[in-house]
């Protein structure tokens, strides 16, 4: 097996740029599709977006094969070993026997854990403004902290508790501001239930925090060291010889791209069955968009969503759930500025709430972000 060098601390920042840029673009394009373009099919938009996730690992493999001397075959073999070891942490005795049952259960859990809050976010953004939903969504950092302390038994920190309180106040102000936006504003007619949309975004944020903690816990255990696998290989059957040229551990981000693709494949394979149910319940009538602008906007939102998801999964593997959530502070400013560009209705309470939430995130960042960036704990190779 081929050892990967372990350098490249800057690579998480590339993932951060992907996540931030993808989130802002997906947010604004989705908002335009569901409101301005009047294509009120949030589940279909989410289905298309998450189905596009499938190409993440393919694009990543092609990129690595064209920019390094590694072949797609060697990278794929190493990825197979990485995934098998991730599903059976600490075991080198079953290198080749892939744990399919556990694999399918993990993929289903990740898909359900990500799809549920994303759908709520999508519905919320069709009822409220992009900036409101972004502020509320980004409070998942604080819910992740609360869950980790109250349910997972991690150590309580007073600084983080203060940040949680500030964030809660900020969210309340944003929701209150959404409920009193002037009815004379032109865009208000497109956002008849803004406070409801904000509340849905809040629920989505809580569920997304749980998803991040689950993935963080899943990706945290260290993989079997290369020397242990090589020792096992020397005693093993000829089948192991096929893996002698495997690149292990996988290059930075490749495992995250794989899990992102699996979420996309699971979405594409299973969630289409929900469309007849939604139609029967009168929730959402399935119909393909016919306006070329709407089609392009949906595709743009889909590929932007794939960028966001891939970058976020890489950051979760590198920095953990709470620190990754803290970095999403930047999206509040970016989405707020793009909201102003598109002429969205912004209340003074929404502005104050955004600033309070930003202050809370800075308090949290002061105690966790800097140390996590300076001493990254990624379980994936930085090659």
UniProtKB/TrEMBL annotation:
The chain crosses the membrane at residues 43-65, 103-129, 135-154, 161-179, 258-275, 295-317. The keyword DNA damage does not apply. This is EamA domain-containing protein. Keywords: Membrane, Transmembrane, Transmembrane helix. Signal peptide: none annotated. The keyword Transmembrane helix applies. Coiled coil: none annotated. It comes from Lentinula aff. detonsa.
